[in-house]
Amino acid sequence: MAGRWSPALALVAALAVGVLLACGAPAAPAAPTPALPARAVPTPQPAAPTAQPPERAQLRVTYGSVSGSMTPLWLAVDQGLFQKYGLSVDVDYAESNAGVAAVVSGESQVNVNEGVSVIRAIAAGAPLKIVAYFNKRNPYAVVARPEIATPADLRGKTIALLRPGDTTDVSARIALQPRGIVVGADVQALSAGNSPSRLAALLSGQVSAALLSEAFVDQAVAQGMHVLISLEQEQIPYVSTATLIADSFGRDNPNTVRAFLEGMIEAERLFADPSNRALVLPVMAQKLKLDPADPAVADAYDFYHDRLARNPRPDREGAETIIDALREIDPAAYATLTPDQVADPSYMDAIQASGFLDRIWGR
Question: 140-234, what's its fold?
């Protein structure tokens, strides 16, 4: 169910996690997906619900970006999959920092978000844990103007990011540091705004390169730009789509957390099956605020439908990649932060031990 957060939440966001930086420009909450016509659609094999019923039946969940990576969450609501596991789930869009703050305050119980904002909040003392990574690939690419042939050509030039310390900044450092280019020293960063603004800055020649993802990469290439480094293709461990809870909520409601994750995994199975494309595209289009026939919807589907992690266990490597990049930005703030402080794999370990993943994926 879509909605807006109360004014009190804005105050909570400022007080609780005001140090955080968002991963993208806010988008208005989307209206509920219209009911789809009845149709015969292949569905995943039934999986046994959680052995123990959830401690609570109602959850409020926020998601921090409007992109194809959120499709399993949208599908789980649209197709009633959470109810199968004993949950009634209300879903709202909340920009990255506000979604984290909602979990801190208890106004929501789960947040699905990009990893950098979450890890920054934990480093700042927020009592939170990541319990799953549904997307373990970094979707960004360093896209450059034609005259920039190699990363070394960026020395003395400017690259467009969203803002310092956010996921675009972290991604630029992950891409360029191994090539001997340091953001802020060898190449200057321009806070250019969201993806359309960064693309415009690149095309106009205001910058020599930009951090872009998904369809924006294709648009840039179509207009004569080229991909200098693709982090998605390099498959560096990362936390792109994290499921976040408060420590206290997890301790008090372990079966609820597990039920939520099982609903998400079953929705991902539905998303991954190409025979369900006709079912999935209208749901994605409604949330992306596009016509179902818009090529951008099909592009988002093609990019994500079989890329998400079939085992979303939160591994150490993804968190380490982000922590290492954040240490480059602020060594003191992240000097002692470890992946064990960021992620709690126990819920996914229990799901895997139960055989749920094998049943849902037909292994």
Answer: D-Maltodextrin-Binding Protein; domain 2 (3.40.190)
